[in-house]
Amino acid sequence: MSVRRRIVVTVKTYPNPSTTYEETVCIAGYDLDLQQFVRLYPVRFRDLPYPRWFKKWEVIEADVTKKAADPRGDTYTPDPATISKVDGYYKGNGSRRADWSRRDALVLPLASTLENLAIQADRFEGS
Asked: Burial of 126 by CB count in 10 Å (0-12 exposed, 13-18 middle, 19+ buried)?
């Protein structure tokens, strides 16, 4: 079952050839509805119509489905026909200078120490 999500794109990998999906990118972002980081894969970025292309720190909307075959709990598959840019609030004010205060307010509360990440990984593997 797919659900509509708003995601701030924080990472977009370089296009990579795939025997299953042709050329894909992997997107990492902050889901504004779940308030957590998520992974979107596969995204056939260059196959999207140009008006739907997006950059890092732009907010997109898409219908996504949890990828059950992926052991990571944060992976979703987007429906490419539903991907759309919402706004560039986290991208900045149109100048070349990024608005890092907006980004910091979004990301830093989720930051963790290496020790905390190891504890979370142990809990995930044990479940």
From this structure: exposed
